[in-house]
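Exercise 7. Given the encoded structure of a 396-residue chain, write a plausible sequence.
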């Protein structure tokens, strides 16, 4: 699967570069170097119970390269391919595809087909699904980045700048929900790629796929469909140019809860209410609230049923080359299967302070502090904090 995904990325980029004229081809990307010191439990990226991308009183280094290609041979057609490459010590995919879709436009309608992020995030509003505000994403969008990436088609209708309505049919998100149930909410900035293997904390191996019998359990981010069922999503958005917007979205992967080749098709559905006021180039207020439920398996055999919700509120102010941002996060999961073997209930909150500085039109530096506090029923306290510094070079 890794070889096929990487081959597809290379072919798509080559096709766009050779088939498109210079006038219709646009390249964008980031080269990012990041250093993170964090305490607390073992990092989520290596199958620990921590809430951050680093942990255990150590400093981690992360290198990330992102590239996006847009080919627009006609006013009604756009092809977008986005990939990522990583350099760090973790075992998930080093190279892969994050988005690939085709847009067909006509009048007030747009048809999008492929793999894409749903436009629900109020913080990941820059190109390549990146945030101008903080180094670490909110708990809501950390989960979206890892487990929610529809592979299908979306029809959108837009009436000027005021009203947007859209409906999506998708497949390939059957494992969505496994991370929240077994690991809980986290804060990070890792964009999963197609077919990524995401580490899980120690658990009953019958509930998660393992690379080998003696290896740590993993779950697939999104990729091949397991149960053959089509999920759906819908959203409605009201916008007031230069003043703000409000949006409600519903997502249901319609998983059948059954086991397929060592991995379950989770049944996951959730709503996201988001709002924004102000202007990002000056002062902006943004917030999102996510509420849903997930489950797998059937009683009386091994099964999981859980409710989850999370929210954040963010304020950001841009002053010359500086941007100052503050964010508060709240998150929780509630166990509904009442299994003695695993209680999935947790409650927590976090706050983040970030300072970004535009050194040049292409180079941005950043510094950030994040504090997480909370408890999980089966492991106790999940408190931790991190300090991150970042340098990013933008290609545009």
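Solution.
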């Amino acid at each position: 699967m890794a070889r096929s995904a990487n081959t597809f990325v290379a072919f798509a980029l080559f096709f766009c570069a050779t088939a498109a004229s210079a006038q219709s081809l646009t390249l964008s990307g980031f080269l990012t170097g990041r250093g993170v010191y964090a305490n607390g439990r073992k990092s989520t990226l290596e199958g620990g119970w921590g809430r951050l991308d680093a942990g255990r009183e150590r400093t981690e280094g992360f290198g990330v390269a992102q590239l996006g290609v847009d080919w627009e041979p006609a006013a009604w057609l756009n092809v977008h391919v986005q990939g990522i490459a990583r350099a760090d010590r973790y075992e998930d995919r080093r190279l892969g595809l994050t988005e690939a879709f085709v847009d067909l436009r006509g009048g007030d309608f747009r048809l999008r087909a492929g793999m894409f992020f749903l436009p629900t995030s109020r913080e990941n509003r820059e190109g390549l699904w990146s945030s101008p505000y903080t180094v670490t994403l909110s708990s809501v969008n950390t989960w979206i980045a890892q487990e929610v990436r529809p592979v299908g088609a979306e029809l959108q209708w837009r009436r000027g700048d005021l009203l947007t309505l859209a409906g999506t049919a998708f497949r390939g998100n059957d494992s969505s929900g496994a991370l929240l149930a077994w690991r809980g909410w986290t804060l990070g900035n890792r964009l999963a790629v197609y077919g990524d293997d995401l580490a899980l904390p120690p658990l009953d191996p019958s509930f998660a796929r393992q690379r080998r019998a003696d290896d740590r359990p993993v779950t697939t981010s999104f990729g091949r469909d397991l149960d053959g069922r089509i999920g759906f999503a819908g959203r409605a958005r009201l916008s007031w140019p230069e003043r703000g917007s409000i949006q409600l979205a519903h997502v249901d992967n319609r998983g059948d809860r059954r086991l397929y080749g060592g991995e379950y098709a989770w049944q996951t559905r959730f709503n996201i209410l988001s709002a924004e006021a102000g202007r990002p180039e000056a002062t902006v207020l943004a917030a999102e609230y996510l509420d849903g439920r997930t489950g797998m398996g059937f009683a009386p055999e091994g099964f999981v049923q859980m409710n989850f919700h999370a929210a954040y509120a963010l304020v950001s102010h841009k002053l010359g080359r500086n941007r100052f941002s503050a964010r508060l996060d709240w998150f929780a999961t509630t166990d509904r299967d009442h299994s003695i073997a695993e209680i999935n209930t947790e409650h927590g909150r976090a706050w983040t302070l970030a300072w970004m500085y535009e050194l040049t039109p292409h180079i941005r530096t950043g510094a950030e502090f994040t504090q997480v506090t909370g408890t999980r029923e089966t492991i106790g306290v999940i408190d931790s904090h991190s300090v991150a510094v970042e340098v990013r070079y933008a290609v545009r």
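Remark. The mean pLDDT is 89. Students should compare their own answers with the one above.
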